[in-house]
């Protein structure tokens, strides 16, 4: 009987979802008019109860001619029932690793939906209500300040609200690298593996930062595969689609494209106005319609700036007693645009990014060590500093431990030569520069 029940489900749902959620069910008994089914974990039980009970009921109805009550049990519970619960395994609870309180305010409710983001919004909601269902991985991409991180947190919060006993892990791409470097240094790579491979839902923000970093990509590849195969949900966010992340390994690129790609675009005028109004409401400040329009016509490509303008107007009102007016709107816009001037890139910032990519420390780059790996990293750092800061060669030399300008010149020439010879080397440098500029 179970075979026909399962076949019925297979015909009535997405194949991926079938493989992940129904195929794993083991029939235990059909006695006393009750169907007992078993799955391995409570997480699986939760998801099935939330999403597939109707389907299972109809399947039994079709097969048996009636609907037996369905009882789902888990191997986890069976085991714990037999053995006395051990001290070192506290009952699992839903928890969000790396999340903090401020992220609670990012929800689906306070996300304004317009033509530019409705697809990414719907996909995020689908994933939050049905993790590891049809869209795995979900890959969201788009420009800065367009709500990608907001959606990621909203998924987090929604899953947290709806499920018990589920491990959510949130991480930024560059923190993943940092943690890995630290784990290698402290010889704690095992607990690093475990932290990520025990996730039921893994959310990675700004995944583009792992590109070009060999060991990080290697590690992420294995994390990805082990989670994916175990039917866990993966959500990735990036500033570009996978095919435009130049130094992303091919095997990762293909995996990132396995599931659903969803982009967020700059909002249209109506959406911008709606966002200004909603943010004004949240801050309890009354901004007349024509002022909303005025702002929306001037700040077009970044939602963070719209939010910033409303906050400025609120501040003017509170601090200077200035009611919203064209003048205060103009000032708010000017301030916001100035705030968003890129912060000048520091040498330290460049050293950090280069050292992550080349897997050496910033100190080593500045030192006199001459191992091939370190010299290579040093040359790249020098080149990138020149590209980004336009400093003179002797000034760069001073920043790099008092090297003279001919040494700096030589390093730059080497890098330029390598870039001409080797497209993947060039792509690595381009990625480093891009990452530093967009930070
Ligand atoms: P990104 O990660 O794409 O750079 P964020 O998610 O950090 O952008 O969004 C920037 C700010 O704009 C956040 O405060 C976020 O709450 C807000 N925001 C972005 N999109 C929306 C939206 N559609 N509705 C409401 N607020 C939004
Ligand atoms: Mg973001």
UniProtKB/TrEMBL annotation:
Segments forming domain Chromosomal replication initiator DnaA C-terminal: 346-415
Subcellular location: Cytoplasm
Gene3D superfamilies for this protein: 1.10.1750.10, 1.10.8.60, 3.30.300.180, P-loop containing nucleotide triphosphate hydrolases
InterPro entries from the UniProt entry: AAA+_ATPase, Chromosome_initiator_DnaA, Chromosome_initiator_DnaA-like, Chromosome_initiator_DnaA_CS, DnaA_C, DnaA_dom, DnaA_N_dom, DnaA_N_sf
GO biological process, one term: regulation of DNA replication
MF terms (GO), sorted A to Z: ATP binding; DNA replication origin binding; lipid binding
Source species, domain of life: Bacteria
Residues bound to ATP: 145, 147-149
SMART domains reported in the protein's UniProt record: AAA, Bac_DnaA_C
Keywords assigned: ATP-binding, Cytoplasm, DNA replication, DNA-binding, Lipid-binding, Nucleotide-binding
Region (Domain I, interacts with DnaA modulators) location: 1-79
Residue span(s) of domain AAA+ ATPase: 134-262
A cellular component term, taken from the record's GO annotations: plasma membrane
Positions of the UniProt region annotated as Domain IV, binds dsDNA: 318-439
Comp. bias intervals (Polar residues): 81-96
CDD domains: AAA, Bac_DnaA_C
Region (Disordered): 77-96
Family, as annotated: Belongs to the DnaA family.
Subunit: Oligomerizes as a right-handed, spiral filament on DNA at oriC.
Domain remark text: Domain I is involved in oligomerization and binding regulators, domain II is flexibile and of varying length in different bacteria, domain III forms the AAA+ region, while domain IV binds dsDNA.
PANTHER family (UniProt xref): CHROMOSOMAL REPLICATION INITIATOR PROTEIN DNAA (PTHR30050)
Function, as annotated: Plays an essential role in the initiation and regulation of chromosomal replication. ATP-DnaA binds to the origin of replication (oriC) to initiate formation of the DNA replication initiation complex once per cell cycle. Binds the DnaA box (a 9 base pair repeat at the origin) and separates the double-stranded (ds)DNA. Forms a right-handed helical filament on oriC DNA; dsDNA binds to the exterior of the filament while single-stranded (ss)DNA is stabiized in the filament's interior.
HAMAP family with a match to the protein in the record: DnaA_bact
Protein name: Chromosomal replication initiator protein DnaA
């Amino acid at each position: 009987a179970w075979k026909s029940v399962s076949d019925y489900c297979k015909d009535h749902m997405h194949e991926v979802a079938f493989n992940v959620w129904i195929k794993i069910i083991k029939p235990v008994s059909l006695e006393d008019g009750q169907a007992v089914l078993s799955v391995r974990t409570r997480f699986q039980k939760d998801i099935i109860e939330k999403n597939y009970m109707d389907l299972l009921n109809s399947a039994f109805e079709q097969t048996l001619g009636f609907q037996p009550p369905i009882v789902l049990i888990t191997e986890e519970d069976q085991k714990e029932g037999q053995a006395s619960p051990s001290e070192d395994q506290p009952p699992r609870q839903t928890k969000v690793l790396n999340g903090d309180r401020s992220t609670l305010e990012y929800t689906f409710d306070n996300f304004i939906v317009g033509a530019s983001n409705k697809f990414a919004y719907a996909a995020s909601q689908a994933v939050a209500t049905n993790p590891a269902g049809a869209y795995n991985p979900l890959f969201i991409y788009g420009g800065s300040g367009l709500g990608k991180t907001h959606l990621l947190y909203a998924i987090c919060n929604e899953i947290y609200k709806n499920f018990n006993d589920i491990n959510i892990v949130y991480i930024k791409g560059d923190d993943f690298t940092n943690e890995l470097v630290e784990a290698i240094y402290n010889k704690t790579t095992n607990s690093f593996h475990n932290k990520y491979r025990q996730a039921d839902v893994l959310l990675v923000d700004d995944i583009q930062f792992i590109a070009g970093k060999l060991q990080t990509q290697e590690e992420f590849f294995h994390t990805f595969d082990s989670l994916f195969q175990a039917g866990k949900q993966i959500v990735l966010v990036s500033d570009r689609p996978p095919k435009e992340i130049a130094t992303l390994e091919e095997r990762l690129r293909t995996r990132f494209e396995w599931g659903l790609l969803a982009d967020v675009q700059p909002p249209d005028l109506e959406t911008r106005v709606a966002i200004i109004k909603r943010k004004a409401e949240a801050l309890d400040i009354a901004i007349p319609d024509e002022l909303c329009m005025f702002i929306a016509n001037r700040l077009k490509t970044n939602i963070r700036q719209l939010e910033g303008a409303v906050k400025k107007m609120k501040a003017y009102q509170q601090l200077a007693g200035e009611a919203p007016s064209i003048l205060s709107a103009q000032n708010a816009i000017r301030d916001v645009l100035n705030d968003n001037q890129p912060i000048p890139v520091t040498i330290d910032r460049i050293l950090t990014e280069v050292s992550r990519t080349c897997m050496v420390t910033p100190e080593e780059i500045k030192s006199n060590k001459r191992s091939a790996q370190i010299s290579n990293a040093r040359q790249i750092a020098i080149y990138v500093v020149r590209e980004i800061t336009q400093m003179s060669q002797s000034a760069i030399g001073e920043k790099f431990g008092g090297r003279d300008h001919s040494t700096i010149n030589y390093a730059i020439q080497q890098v330029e030569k390598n870039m001409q010879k080797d497209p993947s080397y060039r792509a690595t440098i381009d990625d480093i520069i891009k990452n530093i500029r967009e930070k």
